[in-house]
Amino acid sequence: MQDLTKDNKLVSNSTKAKPDWIRVKAPVSPQYHQTAALLKEHKLHTVCEEAACPNVGECWEKKHATMMILGDTCTRACSFCNIKTGKPGAVDPFEPFRVADAVQKLGLSHVVITSVDRDDLDDGGSQHFVDVILAIRKMSPDTTIEILTPDFLRKEGAIEKIVVVKPDVFNHNLETVPRLYPSVRPGARYYHSLRLLDTVKTIDPTMFTKSGIMLGLGEERHEVMQVMDDLRAAQVDFLTIGQYLQPTPKHHPVIDFVTPEQFDTYASIARSKGFLMVASSPLTRSSYHAGDDYKIMKERRLDQHKDSCHGDS
Ligand code: SF4
């Protein structure tokens, strides 16, 4: 097995044992099984399962599942990601209805919708995102909708099309620092992803934007600072930071297990840089506690608005 040094060279290693703070309980509750059964009945994929997320027991017990649309096969091959790579099948025109029906049956007040990359489609799957948002809104008008999109690289007009239908949160993860893109996200471009987030805010300054990175892939602290500064320059509201976990021995190795204290330090720095909301802990994932965090973020913006009104009076 191989590992990467800080200067990004491959060296042999043995699998790193997970520290205590990463251990999670096995999913066993009846509510977990109810969520699993409903998703299966609706023939829906989730990133919770496909990405082997460690929080699945906790989230599904609360019926929080992140639905993954546009199939289960991705056209990219990122070295951190457990999702199957290959030639995807045709887009299922009935999927928006099934997603909306599942959201209603689960009684979700906030839902996160993500997708695989669909470089094979002319619009990158953006119309399908729109169809899913509209279907959920029709069946569950009070449910807030967070989308976690691919980068729509070379798909002109894709972002604009989605912003127009006003998801409540537009999330796109940078995943790692720019130096590691060639080994971690080889099909993506750091500055393109950053521009995507900036474009969303330019089109609709009221839309909440969100992005996340994983730590433990070999990044340096000063590079994490650069990512924070870049995201603030793009006016991103919400930053998530979590520990990278290697899904299988074939994936990118874990270079470091970052301690909970270091995550807290990153959170304080990020807050001081002006993010409205920061979630930073070993088990943080972009959709972890997304509904609760959305409510807090909304309240904070209202408070800021009130403060600035008082300041003007
Ligand atoms: S953190 Fe996100 S991906 Fe993981 S189980 Fe929870 S909802 Fe699913």
Describe this structure in words.
With 313 residues, the protein is α/β, with parallel strands linked by helices. It has helices at residues 30-41, 47-50, 56-61, 95-106, 126-139, 158-164, 181-184, 190-203, 221-233, 260-272, 290-312, and strands spanning 2-4, 10-12, 45-46, 67-69, 73-74, 84-85, 110-115, 144-148, 169-171, 208-215, 238-243, 277-280. 39% of the residues lie in helices and 15% in strands. The strands form three sheets. An eight-stranded mixed sheet has the order 3-4-7-8-9-10-11-12, sandwiched between helices. A two-stranded antiparallel ribbon has the order 1-2. The structure holds iron/sulfur cluster. Iron/sulfur cluster binds at residues 47-48, 53, 55-56, 59, 64-66, 285, 287-288.
